Amino acid sequence: MSTPVITKTKIAERLIESILTAKLRPGEKLGEQDIADLFQVSRTLVREALMHLQTRGFVEVRSRVGWYVAEPSFEEAQETYAARRVVEPGMLRDAGQPLQTTLKRLRKHIAEERKAIACGDAEARSWLLADFHICLAECLGNRFLTSMMVDLSARTTLISDLYQSKTEAKVFNDDHAAIVDALAEGDNLKAEQLMIAHIDALASRLDESLIGRRGARNRLRSILAPEDSSSAK
């Protein structure tokens, strides 16, 4: 069996998946050599993948320091939700009534969300709640919107880490189920209104004051700071 060819696109996709599962968090360093060793590719290919992600706003390069996962500003966070408020309801408005196979796939996704929430699987929960919106775009058959939703969902995951307190996962899972139920009933207007309410609820949880306590650089300092001998047990 031939070894799969690793391309810059595959590397970029894996990094985005890691953002969606909250394995990679805002401000985390991305060592070119570490990634090259992991994928067994050249640093040049890794650099090309990172440059591609930089154009999409997922990573940033700091002069003489290296590559880091992006830390969206609070203004960018607000703009991201504003964009979602335009894109996602519009997607539902023009959807028509989905096929039964589509509804079955969406309901299976929602059931997987519930299972991850019940099991306390944080990575799966993060992935599935974000991926619902991507899955919805895929099911509605618009590949351009699907690509847009990948970017918006990954960016939202970074934003949530920086500016939002603990996710009300059960509430948002219920929102997803209600949206799918409305589509099943052929009531696209109701689905659109539910999506707007869902996005507004997410946006209302943005709290700029959290950044000071949650910044990844502060987190790294706390992890690597030398132990205070006076407090050592």
From TrEMBL:
Region forming the signal peptide: none
Cited InterPro entries: GntR_C (IPR011711), TF_FadR/GntR_C (IPR008920), Tscrpt_reg_HTH_GntR (IPR000524), WH-like_DNA-bd_sf (IPR036388), WH_DNA-bd_sf (IPR036390)
Q: Which GO terms describe its molecular function?
A: DNA binding; DNA-binding transcription factor activity
Keywords, alphabetical = DNA-binding, Transcription, Transcription regulation
Q: Which residues form the HTH gntR-type domain?
A: 5-72
SUPFAM superfamilies in alphabetical order: GntR ligand-binding domain-like, Winged helix' DNA-binding domain
Q: Which Pfam families match?
A: FCD, GntR
- What name does the UniProt record give this protein? GntR family transcriptional regulator
In which organism is this protein found? Comamonas testosteroni TK102
